[in-house]
Task: structure prediction
Amino acid sequence: MKMDVLLGLQWGDEGKGKIVDVLSPEYNIIARFQGGPNAGHSLEFGEFKHVLHSIPSGIFRDNTINVIGNGVVLDPVIFMNEISKIKEIKPDALKRLYLSRKIHLILPTHKILDGASEAAKGKTKIGSTLKGIGPTYMDKTGRNGLRIGDILEGNFIERYNFLKNKHLDILKQYDFQFDITDQEKEWFEGIEIMKQFKIIDGAYYINNALNENKKVLAEGAQGTLLDIEFGSYPFVTSSNTVSAGANIGLGVPPGKTGDVIGIFKSYCTRVGSGPFPTELFDKDGEFLAEKGHEFGATTGRARRCGWLDMPALKYSVMINGVTKLIMTKADVLSGLKKFKVATAYKINNKITTEVPFEFNDDLEPVYKEFDGWDIEIDNMDSFDNLPKELKTYIQFIEEETGVPIWIVSVGPDRKETIFRN
Ligand code: GDP
Ligand code: IMO
Ligand code: MG
Result:
């Protein structure tokens, strides 16, 4: 059996959580492969709404094992808080949550370093979620990090103090006030909670499961345009959000990747700083923000909104090798008389359909305009009944990307999901 990968094709918040929850009954294992609690994945069914940060989005399904893979970074405090919420809702779910031994730990001082670094950058700040993601991955590649497997060792506290002191030395270079006394206490409480979970050798676990014909879905966090290598650097996160990240982040070889399921919104959003060629500052932008409830699931920050960016979408499809597309938030476009899609960029008076190295605000989008539709579509359950204008838009995207749109999502609820035959 091969492992399918589901990931975001834009700047995150494409609706990965919702779709993973919808698809989970088809899989035995859901595995997060990168990122950390910078993610906020929203799930909704009926009256129930929940946001997950570190835990895979299959957690509310009865028969799914949820694995946090080695490529993820975990904050024991956030993890503990997530666990206690889930315990109230569905206590038995936690028996099906496994942690990889090689997951790196976010220390309280990683979060302080994140804050200090952002403050020092001033206007050029990344707009980080301040969850300590960058500094933790820096310690991972710098070969200083602490991993979950280490918490079971006798010298763990000593190693913790060594790394903390290293951070305190670095922090002396910044003019940044902090006090980690309370956070440190909670952090060690979180470590004790982690010890109660099944800690596995993730790569063996998942490869064995595939050999036993189990179905595995790798759940991405963030999006392709936030990838450390291929995103709008330096306004990116610190992990590989692309499909190759699933191979590294779970220890599954590339030849065992099955479908690569790419999710995109019918328009674009971005939270944090960085270039956004199709960003809107007019009433259409306000319309998308309001109708799409575009506020960050992790930080509550307002998301910037703009039209779909086709060169960027095609780039993401290429980098990830997407085999199936999912369009979310199609319902948000209902009510617009006209809407647009960038089909190319103008840069130094030249037209290009590629994402250039200088991916910055000097790029001028070249737009194609589409007719909108009036009716609300959130209660529709068949592709055939969708407005013809939306079908035209879908057909255009399929022709441009060369990949079929498999699912159209028309609302935040599990049920508001249209599968195409
Ligand atoms: P993720 O990070 O990719 O999991 O996405 P988020 O959960 O951060 O943001 C997506 C937001 O859109 C959440 O509030 C979802 O409940 C909501 N959502 C997901 N799909 C749809 C959809 O098709 N239509 C609408 N209106 N909302 C959606
Ligand atoms: P999900 O999984 C949207 C953005 C931050 C910032 C940049 C770097 O919910 O799609 P970091 O904290 O990673 O150092 O921040 O990346 N960012 C996200 N934006 N969705 C996310 O996750 C994000 N995770 C990080 O806003 O611009
Ligand atoms: Mg999110």
User: Anything to note?
Assistant: The chain is about 30% helix and 20% strand.
